[in-house]
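User: Okay, second chain of the day. Same drill as before: sequence in, structure tokens out.
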Amino acid sequence: MVRIFRLLLLFAVTGAVTAEDIDGWLIYDGMYRTFLFHIPPSYNGIDSLPLVINMNGGGREGQAYASMTMTSQKSDVEGFFVLYPSHPSAAPWNAGEWYDSEVDDVGFISYLIDTLLAEYSIDTLRIYATGFSTGALMTHRLACELSTRIAAAAPVAGPLILDACEPERRVPLMHIHARDDHHVPYYGGRGIYEPYFWPSVDSSTGRWVELNQCLVGPDSFTNQEGALRQRWINSDSSCEVVLWTTEDGQHTWPGSPTHDPILGVPSNAISATDEIWEFFRTHPMPVEEPCVSEQPVPSTSFKLHTTEIIADECRVSFSLDTPEYVHILLFDATGRKAGTYFKEAMQGMNFIDMDASGLEAGVYYLIVCTPTLTETARIIVAY
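Assistant: Same drill. Structure tokens below.
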């Protein structure tokens, strides 16, 4: 069912704790929703930065949750935005099965991404999701249902509970869990406070291994503090699933300075924040490959002749012996898409002008492809 949402108010700055923090709220699908958005000091308004979405569990949100995970401190050092969305005040995240509700949390997160993209320079190839406890459950759901927007995911202390998970692409995923977790048991079963029968961490990890076709592994490693890391990869090493297991820490965020009398004392065997960022930064969204044809087509003679910048236009000339579909993509040196063009059934000598008025000075790569052949050219834009 298609829903239409009206945004009543984008942001309300309600006394942010620091100049880099924005306390925001909006009305989404008729509900009052809040979030905290952290901007690192390195942001200059021009260079695009990664975005880490960090979803809270029960009991803490906003600044309290940011302090627990120390993700804002990490972003100040590494240079990425952090979005801390909050679940509805009367309910946990709609993460599937036992937490199923009518609240459209996937739509809410996607809408927040769009809202921030309109205001800030965010690298759309490096948008990541993590979360703790019920926020971890929601992290799994985003990896399943927003796989074209979320480059990689890292749930902490929460397994995959969705019955159906059908991501549109392979999503690198790292799960962190304590073996002595008494709320969400590592080996599955009932926690001490909730009546749910949790799936085991192994079964949850196994589902992602299968979904991502990461059938090579596990490669196991134990660090000096006794934390076990297991890693599965696929045949070409383009995707991986990682499981970090700590022996202690119960139901907490490893490495956190926050101790909770109910949840437990965090493990110091690893820093979840450090491990998550190291995982994220090595897994940007793969650049699309549009030149793959599902149907066999006859080969043709295709020649890319020249590419040049003329009066704010990128002129591409090429020749085709037979009619072919042509797809043209322009990428900057970091792999971000800067432009695209598509036209049907071209033949003979062709001249295509792409708008280049918005390009910054630098090196770009042009890919011109048909269903059977691809040519690449390097372009230097200088002003």
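The helical segments are 62-69, 71-78, 105-119, 134-145, 201-211, 272-281.

User: Thanks, on to the next one.
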